[in-house]
Design a protein that fits this description.
Layout (H helix, E strand, L loop, with lengths): L2 E5 L2 E3 L5 E8 L8 E6 L6 E6 L5 E3 L7 E6 L4 E6 L8 E6 L9 E5 L2
Parallel strand pairs: 2-10
Antiparallel strand pairs: 1-3, 3-8, 4-5, 4-9, 5-6, 7-8, 9-10
Length: 112
């Protein structure tokens, strides 16, 4: 069955960086778009970035120029490099494939 395992979250000061990873299994990873979502406390889950099977990327406006999504099809892993982090980037980050379920998420906290 489909499994997504996120890692790499943590506590970081404003202006810092983190790199999130999501290891996928149970489907042919290279054929599908992969996405990162985040959910801040009390807010709905929002789409942050997506990468297609061909490598095309899209980002929500609030992270453009700071975040980079990438994928390694040989490792069935998608990454989110997050730079110049801001307190408003705080939340639980989830990766998502074309299939259910969601992963367990990884907490990112940006605070001084």
């Amino acid at each position: 069955q489909v499994q997504l395992v996120e890692s790499g979250g943590g506590l970081v000061q404003p202006g810092g960086s983190l790199r999130l990873s999501c290891a996928a299994s149970g489907f042919t990873f290279s054929r599908y778009t992969m996405s990162w979502y985040r959910q801040a406390p009390g807010k709905p889950r929002e789409l942050v970035a997506s990468i297609s099977s061909s490598g095309s990327t899209t980002y929500v406006d609030s992270v453009k120029g700071r975040f980079t999504i990438s994928r390694d099809n040989g490792k069935s892993t998608v990454y989110l490099q997050m730079n110049i982090l801001k307190p408003e980037d705080t939340g639980v980050y989830y990766c998502k494939s074309a299939f259910p379920p969601w992963g367990q998420g990884t907490q990112v906290t940006v605070s001084s």
